[in-house]
Every structure is written in structure tokens, then in C-alpha cells.
Amino acid sequence: MTHTQDKSTAMRQGVLIFVYLGILTVLEYFIAVAFDAVPLLVVVALVKAGLVMYYYMHIYRLSEDDGSDEHSYAYKTGTNRLGLWLFLLSDAFVFGGLMVARINLLGMTRPHLNQLLGLGVTAVLLISSFFMNRAETAIAHGDRKTFMTGTFITMILGLLFVIGVVGLEWQLAKIEEVIANRDVVGAVFYMMTGMHAFHVLTGVILLFTVWNKGRKGLYTAEKHWGVEAAAVYWHFVDVVWIFFYPALYLIGKVL
Q: Tens digit of pLDDT for each residue in 20-59?
């Protein structure tokens, strides 16, 4: 798969990567249910994260030559891109700390959570990344209508994810008294899901800002850094959940 593509090829690539992610997610669930093989789950999560980071987040663009003219749009975009990735790296340490806390405090155990709901919100987030990639690809090729539609669908799916986690999963956990009766489990569960849901909600607000500017015609095929930045941030949130999902729902014995 090449980096420079026409619109139809780029769209097909987005679909293909989404299919791979879907297959790997189903495989991940099957491995957890049938074998409970933690190393395999870690490998699947790493492969999924790698696909998202390379094909959806375009990490390879960090090494692109943006020219020597410091006043050009390409040069400024390259600088902004580096700054964004440095911010995401710093944010990753926060989520990494939560993962370390989960491993140290819970070990090879996990909360008793609704498996179908967990798989459902994971699917919603993966689908949202597909539509965000589609939206970014569209504006990069001058297709404003598809960009607007894809971004709007991504926002709706993001809100559905937050509702699924905060509105449903948190309430089910309270009703079943699985979380409330275990202080350590509750701390891990609410911090991991709460921090992630906050980032998703922040992403929705960012996407609305981008969508509103797109509605006013402020983005073109040549100048759309705002869209790229919003897309990369959204996919980053997806990458975080790629690791949080098995850590909370699949790995370890149920408490």
C-alpha cells in the first residue's frame, strides 16, 4: 500500500484496514473465551494498534520532507504535526500509568463486566475511526460532502460510545454491586473508563469544531491541517481503547 493514492484507492484502503481490525477484534474475543491466552491477546492488540497508527494516523508523515520555506503551509503543517505527536506521546503516559495500575492492583483478575456491551462499544469506536478516516481522505481529495457526512457520523458514534460506557456500563456495575463492593476494582474501573470517556468527549467537541469550519468552506484539498489533527487525535483515542478493552474485559479471571 502506497502513501500517495487517488481517492478511490485511498477509500478502498480505509475499508480494507477496517475489515482487518474487525476480524482481529472477533479473533481477540474468541481467544479470550476459548483459550484465555494473554500473550496472544497482547499480540493482537499490538497488531491492531499498529494498523491504526500507520494507516489511519499516518505516523509515516513525521518523516516527510516539508520543504525549507518556513513560511509555507507545508512547513508549518510539518511543525504542527510534530507538536501534535509530542502531545499525544505525553498523553500516552497518562494512559500507560493507568494500565500499570491495573496490572499491579488487579493482576490476573478483572471486573465482572457485561461482555456484549464491552464488545459493542468497542465495535462502535472502531467504526467511528473508519468514518473519520473516510472523512479525512475525502477532504484531502476535495470531496467536502463526504467529509461533512463522515465527520458527523463519527461524532454521533463517539457520543454513543460515551453513553454505552458511562450511561450503561457504569450503571450496570452499580446495580450488580460488582464494582461498588471492591474499592480497588472500582478505582481501576472508573479511572480507566472515565479518563478514556473524557478524551472521547473532548474528541467529539474537537470534531464539531472541525465540522463547523468545514460547513463554512474553510478546508480545501491543499489546506486541511485542522481535519488531519482532529483525525489523528480521534484515532489515538481508538488506539488507547484497543489496549483498555482486553485489559478490562478479556484478560484474567473474573472477580
A: 999 999 999 999 988 888 999 999 999 999 999 999 999 9
| Helix, coil or strand: residue 254 | strand
Spatial separation of the C-alpha atoms in residues 123 and 62, rounded to whole Å = 29
The structural domain count of the chain equals 1
- CATH code: domain of residue 112: 1.20.120.80
Nearest 5°: CA angle at 158, between 153 and 159?
100
Amino acid at 73: Y
Single out the residue of 243, 234, 226, 169 nearest to residue 201, CA to CA.
Answer: 234
pTM across the whole model: 0.94
pLDDT at 42 (0 to 100): 95
Specify the pLDDT at position 33.
Answer: 86
Q: What's the rounded Cα separation, in Å, for the pair 147 and 226?
A: 13
